[in-house]
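thought: user wants a sequence for this fold. calling inverse folding tool.
action: design(structure=
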C-alpha cells in the first residue's frame, strides 16, 4: 500500500479520560478513508493528532513522510483541514474568507475557480451568517482546499444537513478524490460511510474495532440476510425451510421470514419460488448494512 498516513499505537489522554487507546491504521494515497464511531469515541482526537493540532501522549504518526508535531509548519502547507462545527465571523463574505485563507499559504489555488467548483460563485458577496447550512459547509470545504492540499481532513462534514445538501457534498468529496487527493473523514452517518468511503475504520471508546471496505465489514460481521415473503400457498414454510443455506423460517399468518447466509439467500429463494410455482403477494429483502455492523461491533446505535 502507498500509505500517505501511518498511525501506530496512538494514545491520547485528557486527565483521567483515555480518549484514544492504542489506535493503528494506514490511509492509502487517493482513497476516501472514514473513521466512524459514536459520540466521544475519539474520532476528532485521532484526526486532530494526525493533523498536528493536538500532541499525542504515545505512538507514532507519519503524514506524507512528516511528523505532525515536529514538522507542523511543513505539514500545514500540504494538508487541508475542515474542523468539526467550525464557525467564521458573521459578516465575513464568502470571497473575503477565501482570499484571507489564500493569503496564509505560499501557493494558493485560484479563488474564483474554487468557488465555481464548490458552487459558491453566486454567493461570493454574501455574509457567512446569511448562508444555509449546506453553503456554510461548502465554504468550509473550499477553505480546506485553498492550498491545493495532498490530503484533506473533513470532520463530520454533513452533520445537520438535509439529504439534498448531503448528496451535493458527497459529490464534491468524490470530486476531490478524482483530482488525485486523499480524503480522511469522520462521520456518524453509516449511509454516508457506506456510499462515500473506500475503506472505513470503526472506533469505539478509543479503540479500533475493525477496518476494511464497507462490503468486507458487512461480510465479516453480519453474514445473515433476511427475505420476507407474503404468500397464501400451502406448504410454503416447508419449501422455504428446505432451501440450501436457510437457517430459520418463521411465519406469522401469510408472512414468512426467511433467514440465511447473505451470499446466496435471495437467489435461492427466487429459485424456490419459481420451481414450486409459488404465488407471492409481497417480497422484501433485508440485507445487512454498515449500520448493522456498527450495532454488532459496538452494541450501540448511532446518534443523528
Ligand atoms: N480538549 C479536551 N479536553 C478534555 N477532554 C476532551 C477534549 N477533547 C475531547 N475530550 C474527551 O475525549 C473523548 C473523545 O472525544 P472526541 O471529541 O475525540 O470524540 P469524537 O469521536 O470526535 O466525538 P463526536 O462524535 O461527538 O464528535 C471524549 O470523552 C471527550 O469528552
Ligand atoms: Mg468529533
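)
observation: tool returned 304 residues.
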Amino acid at each position: 500500500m502507498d500509505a500517505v498516513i501511518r498511525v501506530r499505537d496512538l494514545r491520547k489522554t485528557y486527565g483521567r479520560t483515555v480518549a484514544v487507546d492504542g489506535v493503528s491504521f494506514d490511509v492509502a494515497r487517493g482513497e476516501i478513508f472514514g473513521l466512524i464511531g459514536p459520540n466521544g469515541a475519539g474520532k476528532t482526537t485521532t484526526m486532530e493528532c494526525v493533523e498536528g493540532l493536538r500532541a499525542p501522549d504515545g505512538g507514532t504518526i507519519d503524514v506524507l513522510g512528516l511528523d505532525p508535531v515536529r514538522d507542523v509548519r511543513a505539514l500545514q502547507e500540504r494538508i487541508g483541514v475542515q474542523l468539526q462545527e467550525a464557525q467564521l465571523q458573521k459578516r465575513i463574505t464568502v470571497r473575503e474568507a477565501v482570499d484571507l485563507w489564500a493569503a496564509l499559504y505560499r501557493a494558493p489555488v485560484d479563488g474564483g475557480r474554487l468557488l465555481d467548483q464548490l458552487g459558491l460563485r453566486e454567493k461570493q458577496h454574501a455574509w457567512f451568517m446569511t448562508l444555509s447550512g449546506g453553503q456554510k459547509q461548502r465554504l468550509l470545504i473550499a477553505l480546506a482546499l485553498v492550498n491545493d492540499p495532498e490530503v484533506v481532513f473533513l470532520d463530520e462534514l454533513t452533520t445537520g444537513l438535509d439529504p439534498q445538501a448531503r448528496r451535493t457534498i458527497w459529490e464534491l468529496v468524490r470530486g476531490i478524490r478524482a483530482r488525485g487527493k486523499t480524503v480522511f473523514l469522520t462521520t456518524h452517518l453509516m449511509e454516508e460511510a457506506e456510499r462515500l468511503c473506500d475503506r472505513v475504520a470503526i472506533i469505539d471508546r478509543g479503540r479500533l474495532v475493525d477496518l476494511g471496505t464497507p462490503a468486507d465489514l458487512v461480510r465479516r460481521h453480519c453474514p445473515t440476510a433476511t427475505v420476507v415473503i407474503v404468500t397464501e400457498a400451502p406448504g410454503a414454510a416447508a419449501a422455504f425451510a428446505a432451501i440450501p443455506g436457510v437457517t430459520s423460517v418463521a411465519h406469522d399468518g401469510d408472512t414468512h421470514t426467511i433467514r440465511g447466509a447473505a451470499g446466496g439467500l435471495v437467489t435461492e429463494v427466487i429459485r424456490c419460488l419459481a420451481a414450486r410455482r409459488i404465488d407471492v403477494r409481497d417480497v422484501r429483502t433485508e440485507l445487512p448494512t454498515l449500520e448493522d455492523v456498527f450495532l454488532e461491533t459496538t452494541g450501540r446505535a448511532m446518534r443523528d
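thought: summarizing for user.
answer: Here is the designed sequence. The chain has two domains: 3-218, 223-287.
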